[in-house]
Amino acid sequence: MPDAKKLARIHRVRTLQLGLSRADEMRAHEKFASEAHLARRIQALADAVSPTPASHDSAAALGAQAHFRERLHQSSAAAQARVQSAEMFVNRAVEATRSAKRDQSAIEKLIARARRAAVAKEMRALEDTPPVSPLKAKRHDPC
Questions:
Q1: Which long-range contacts (CB under 8 A, 24 or more apart) does 34-37 make?
Q2: Is 67 exposed, middle or buried (CB count within 10 Å of its CB: 0-12, 13-18, 19+)?
Q3: DSSP code, position 137
Q4: pLDDT digit of tens for each residue in the chain (143 aa)?
Q5: Contact 48, 123 (CB under 8 A)
Q6: Spatial separation of the C-alpha atoms in residues 115 and 40, rounded to whole Å
Q7: Which letter, b or e, does each residue of 29-63 get, where b requires 16 or more Cβ atoms within 10 Å of its Cβ?
């Protein structure tokens, strides 16, 4: 069983690792939200550029709209790929945080077990001390 100093040091390290993994998880969630927002904006732009039946634009304008719409669809596909990548990163970050929390909890359990063992050892030491004889104790009662 490791000593208390070693357990305390390991606990500090695990706590720092947990904090770092939580920060990574937060960044991953923020990146995912940002990528999802960008993908929604690109999709909204692509929907806004789609031709309407009432539009009587020239062939050049329709060609320009089609080109712009095609570029937006390409951007939308790239944005969806980034969203999927960000989602996978979020899942990895969540698992890393969960693992760090398990590690920290295990160390906390070891610390609690070491404290209980130390208390039990002290109690056994107190039980093993010889009793104090009442004859040796001097009482000074008022006479």
A1: 35/79, 35/82, 35/83, 35/85, 35/86, 36/83, 36/86
A2: exposed
A3: S
A4: 578 889 999 999 999 999 999 999 999 999 999 999 999 998 888 888 776 666 666 777 777 777 888 888 899 899 999 999 999 999 999 999 999 999 999 999 999 999 999 999 999 988 888 776 655 656 677 76
A5: no
A6: 54
A7: eebbeebbebbeebbeebeebeeeeeeeeeeeeee
